[in-house]
Amino acid sequence: MAAASRAVSERIPLVDLVLEVRDARIPLSSEYDQLRNFPSSSKRIIVLNKMDLANRLEIKEWMRYFEQQNCISFGVNSHNKDNIKECLKFLQAQVKGVKKIDHSSYTATIMLVGIPNVGKSALANSLHQIGRISAAEKGKLKHATVSPIPGETRDISSLKIGSHPNVYVLDTPGILPPDILDVVVCSKLALTGAIKDCLVGEKELAQYFLSILNRSDEYKKWEKLSAEENEISTIDQRVGCLGSSELDSRQKRQYPTDHTQDFVVREVRRVLFETISSFPGSLEKEKDLSRLIETQFTALREAFRVASESGEDVENKVAAKLLNLYRTGRLGHYTLDSVPRNIQ
């Protein structure tokens, strides 16, 4: 990261725009610390990526906050083509504003910077693909390396995202400060994938997520699943009356060990709703919260169809599946950072 940090610092003064890509779930905790060494200017734009995983109402508050801080910001989902088209138009307008040139023969460069795993490479690829299609350009598309594991981008790469004027985007490695002293910030970075799971522990991260879920209102959206479970039980009894061949064909279409299947996700949501809503303790007390989380791990083991052998390995399997569902938005939408109220 030290070498990448020097390379990025050398190029920042040379580019036309700097897009600081942040994770919309942690708009403050995912701040790119290195930009503090450069004076703020119109060159810097804060891009909140992974909007599809964040709480939309809270993100609107963050956008207003950045506006009050005289920071240009834009929310994006790198995997939504219409959203990427809007982002391209926005960037082209910003480039014209910076260049202040009417003709289209110039070349502009935009640098993407940020901490690991905020989606810089995914955003660069999407801008490149949509930009080339919009410009009706031929030729082989390039691809920046995309991975859910932080630290996969090792070099600075250039991708063309527009013509007339020519606009290039530089994808850079994710960089974290050498020391993160704030435990809460570190926890948020780890939960959202900016820090490798093995450095913190999957079980600990899953427990942290459950502590957030249990104190939120997200689980209330799954109330109907509990009522539906009773209806499904009745239907299952009727299905038992069907011929064995038809019953077998239905079962073959389901893969209980695949936690990403809809019927497994519904079961996980139902279990989480029922364990939270029926819990008699106080979630403001740490001991009670820990007791609830322990109960949830036991219930989730069955929901995820994890074999009942004893040992820490079982809990790690449950934790890994739970984290995957959270990080893909299957268990609700969360913005973990709160807008500073004294400035809002």
Summary, kept brief:
The protein has 344 residues and is α/β, with parallel strands linked by helices. 45% of the residues lie in helices and 10% in strands.
Describe the structure.
This protein is 45% helix and 10% strand. The protein contains 11 helices and 6 strands. The chain has helices spanning 2-11, 56-68, 81-99, 120-134, 183-191, 202-214, 223-239, 244-252, 262-277, 286-303, 312-327; strands at 17-23, 44-49, 72-75, 107-113, 157-162, 166-171. Strand 5 (157-162) and strand 6 form a beta hairpin. The radius of gyration is 23 Å and the shape is elongated. The model has no long low-confidence stretch (mean pLDDT 85).
Keywords:
alpha/beta, 6-stranded mixed beta sheet, 11 helices, 6 strands, 344 residues, 10% strand
